[in-house]
Amino acid sequence: MPQTIRLDKAVSQVTNLSRADAKRAAKSGRITVNGEIITNPATKVVDEDILCLDGRQLSQPGPRYFMLHKPLGYVSASKDSEHPTVLDLIDEPNKHLLHVAGRLDIDTTGLVLITDDGQWSHKVTSPRHHHHKVYHVHLADSIAENAADKFAKGVWLDGEQKRTRPAQLEALSMKEARLTISEGRYHQVKRMFAALGNRVLQLHRERIGTIVLDEELAEGDYRPLTEIEVNSIQ
Ligand code: URA
């Protein structure tokens, strides 16, 4: 189902008009949708509709790509009734078109990619495209000696039919490690350590493929991806 949005909201997202201004503009007949004057600001429109204000077509943004430094307590969904979402941290027009490419749990921090390009986000998340995800992990207990071997062979996650794909574990201290995985199953890192009888206390994503979380970005900040970063996802 195409996502619908009120006309006044759609116009205010792609212009510098406030919602109230956009309502007035509609009521005074200044807005057309697919060539027809629409005076009811509550009319629902979809992305494909061509909106004009005073005869000028309102530009549809091209594909957009951002990286965000996700703080704790934010969900990666577009909407949530209980918690703030990572999209609440984004101040861009036509925000409803954006989505997260590869979710993080509410209690995970770090690199989140946000885009309106569905094919690109599929490549980010699909294991077939081999974009490794790198996590910095703090654990409750010391890392078992054979943990790296087990992860390299793949472990069985509770309730799953297939072993995890080979993953690389680099111990940074007794209870701290960097883990590189090439898939994104539900709570994957936490469940991989649970499979070894350990528990993740803190989880932070540092990298996806060659896209590294920009150290200039404070928690909650975001920036557009560079062309090189966008094109690194193939
Ligand atoms: N693995 C997890 O368990 N949680 C995340 O947020 C990401 C990977």
Write a short abstract of this structure:
With 234 residues, this protein is of the alpha+beta class. It is 19% helix and 28% strand. The longest helix is centred in the N-terminal third of the chain and has 9 residues, at 19-27.
Secondary-structure map:
Blueprint lengths: L3 E3 H8 L4 H9 L3 E3 L2 E2 L6 E3 L4 E3 L2 E2 L7 E6 L28 E3 L6 E8 L2 H8 L7 E7 L7 H7 L14 E6 L2 E6 L6 H8 L4 E9 L2 E2 L9 E3 L2 H5 L3
Parallel strand pairs: 9-13
Antiparallel strand pairs: 1-4, 2-3, 2-5, 5-6, 7-9, 7-15, 8-9, 10-12, 10-13, 11-12, 13-14
The site of uracil (URA) has 8 residues, from helix 5.
Give a structural overview.
With 234 residues, the protein is of the alpha+beta class. It has two domains: 5-58, Structural Genomics Hypothetical 15.5 Kd Protein In mrcA-pckA Intergenic Region, Chain A, CATH 3.10.290.10; 65-231, Pseudouridine synthase, CATH 3.30.2350.10. Helices cover 19% and strands 28% of the residues. The strands form three sheets. Strands 7, 8, 9, 10, 11, 12, 13, 14 and 15 form a nine-stranded mixed beta sheet that branches. A four-stranded antiparallel beta sheet has the order 3-2-5-6. The model has no long low-confidence stretch (mean pLDDT 93). The chain binds uracil. Uracil binds at residues 104-105, 108, 187-190, 203.
Q: In the CATH hierarchy, what is the superfamily of the largest domain?
A: Pseudouridine synthase
SSE topology string: EHHEEEEEEEEHEHEEHEEEH
What would you report as the Rg, rounded to the nearest angstrom? 22 Å
- The helix-and-strand class reads alpha+beta
Number of domain units: 2
CATH topology term of the largest domain = Pseudouridine synthase
